[in-house]
Amino acid sequence: MAKNDCFEELDVRKYAAEIGIEVYDLVDKLPLSKDFKSRDQLSGAAISISNNIAEGFEYNDNKNFIRFLEYAKGSAGELRSQAFVLSKAGRIKEDDYWDLKESLLNI
């Protein structure tokens, strides 16, 4: 298993948490801030990335950790898809979408 003592030390988890913060900032902007369902879906998918990394780490075996890393990657894809649709619908600025996409592709 990993040499880290806790998931908070993992660089990938730190990076995922930064993306979560980025998304929380994004959903506070108009017009998305008034679209409660989309806002909740985006923030839920974003926090799921970090949470899956943490949960997988806590199982203390590589097989489960890898499985949860795959879930985290899936959540990143879900978030990219949602952000794409919202950018095309004018709910997210195009620049914000591209910045988020770039961050998510680095997970």
TrEMBL record:
It comes from the Bacteria. PANTHER family: FOUR HELIX BUNDLE PROTEIN. This is Four helix bundle protein. It comes from Echinicola soli.
